[in-house]
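A quick aside before the break. I want you to see a complete sequence-to-structure record at least once, exactly as it would be stored in a machine-readable document. Don't worry about memorizing anything.
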Amino acid sequence: MTDPAGYQPFVEAFPATLVPYRAHFLARGGKTQSFAGEAPKRVAIIAFNNMEDALNWRNSEALQKIMPMREGKATYLMNFAVEGVSEAQEPAVGTSTPPAK
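That is the input. The structure line, written in tokens, reads:
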């Protein structure tokens, strides 16, 4: 973030753009920990019910209206959508208990 005070109006207006698409934050800011490579300074992850809702939100009039508020106030390295997996999917690793600390 290059201008935190100037970025604040965008931060305040942003959540309302998600409401019509029933989207919500899974992460917004918070501590990051790198396991390989350099961790980003700030991460936001937004959950949508499906890719169509994500694309419709991204192209929405409400979001487009506030996008100029962030220009010159933050640097974006990555911005993309990823289709998730079904909640009914079997665990990839199994159900073993983690080792004691």
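Two observations worth writing down. Residues 4 and 93 are 41 Å apart (CA to CA). The first strand starts at residue 24 and ends at 28. We'll return to this after the break.
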